[in-house]
Amino acid sequence: MDHVVYDREPPTNLTTMVMAFGGWIDAGQAATGALRHLVTDLSAVRLACIDPEQFFVFTQERPDVKMRPDESREIHWPRSEFFACAPAEGRDGLLLFCGPEPHQRWRAYTTAFLDLAERCGVRRIVSLGALLAGAPHTRPIRVTGRCTDPTWRSVLEAWGIYRRPTYEGPTGISTVLLDAAEQRGISHLGFMGQAPHYLQSAENPAAIHALLTYVARLLHLSPDLSQFTEAMKDFRTQCDRAVARDRATREHVQQLEQQYDATAGEEQSTLPNEELDSEKLMQELQDFLRVQRERGEEGPK
C-alpha cells in the first residue's frame, strides 16, 4: 500500500469499480473520456492516487508544467486517480479509476491497485476500452463485451454484443489487472469500442458516447449525455470535410461503409488489408481538425 496516497479514509461499500486506462486501448480517447464524464456527472470525489515515481518513465509520459496566478510554476505528474461515489437508490457504490497505462513494474502496480479496490469493498470490475478498427466514422460505433460473470454474460448476450475472448498476443495493463482480479475472486466485464483507424489521435465523441451508453445501461445510471449531441454532429461534419478533400480517402471510407453494412450485427475484423497511406490521411485530417479548432478559439473575425 506504500504506492497509494489517500486523500481521505476509504469507504468500504463501493462494490463496483469502473476503470479506464489511457494509451493502447483508448482509441479516440473513448475510455478515459467516458470515465472522466462519469466522474463529473456523478460528482465523485477523489479518494486516492497511485504515486507515479515507481511506475512511469517520465521521458515517455512527461509531467506538465502550469503557471499559477503569481507567476510561479506548478508541476502536474501523470495521474492515476481513484474517485468514490457513494451508493444511491438503485445503484451500488462506485469506485472510478482513470489513468495512463504504466510503463513498468506492472505486477507491483496491480497489487497496489487491487489492494485498494478490495479495501473499498469492490466485488466486480467494469473495464472500458476502445481499439482502432476498420470502421467508418459515418456509422454508429460498435461496442462488444466480454465477462466472467454468468449473469452479466446473459445480459450481454441479450444485447447481442457478447464476444467470447479469442485474442492471443501482446496485451495491456487492463488484461493483467483483470486476470489478477479474477484470481482474487473479483468478477469483471469489459466493454470495447471500435474506433475508425484513420482517426488515431482525435478525441472521438461518438466513441465516448457509445461506451457511456452501455455502462450506464449496465449499472442503472442516468448520466446527462446531452452535450454529446452537438459534439458528435460537429465531429462528423469536420471528418466529412476532411475526407472529401482526397479521392483515395473517400473511396476507402466508402469501402469501410460497405463492409460495415454487410456485417451488421457482427463484430468487425481488424484493419482491412488494402493498401492505404494511413499516415498521410491521419496527418491531413489532424491538420484540418487543428485548423478548425483554432478558428473556433479565435472566434469570428
Can you describe what's shown?
It is a single chain. This protein is an alpha/beta fold and 301 residues long. The protein has a single domain, classed as Rossmann fold, CATH 3.40.50. It has eight helices and ten strands. The strands form two sheets. An eight-stranded mixed beta sheet has the order 1-3-6-7-2-8-10-9, with helices on both faces. Strands 4-5 form a two-stranded antiparallel ribbon. Helix 2 packs across helix 4. The radius of gyration is 20 Å and the shape is globular. The termini are far apart. About 5% of the residues have low confidence.
Could you outline the blueprint of secondary structure elements for this entry?
Blueprint: E1 4-6, E2 16-22, H1 30-41, E3 45-50, E4 64-67, E5 73-76, E6 81-85, E7 94-100, H2 106-119, E8 124-133, E9 142-147, H3 150-159, H4 173-183, E10 187-196, H5 205-219, H6 227-244, H7 247-262, H8 278-298
Parallel strand pairs: 2-7, 2-8, 8-10
Antiparallel strand pairs: 1-3, 3-6, 4-5, 6-7, 9-10
Helix pairs in contact: 1-5, 2-4, 6-8
CATH superfamily: PAC-like subunit
Largest sheet: 8 strands, mixed
In total, how many domains does the architecture comprise? 1
Number of strands: 10
Terminal residue distance: 55 Å
Concise description?
The protein has 301 residues and is an alpha/beta fold. It has one domain: 3-Layer(aba) Sandwich (Rossmann fold), CATH 3.40.50.10900. It has helices at residues 30-41, 106-119, 150-159, 173-183, 205-219, 227-244, 247-262, 278-298, and strands at residues 4-6, 16-22, 45-50, 64-67, 73-76, 81-85, 94-100, 124-133, 142-147, 187-196.
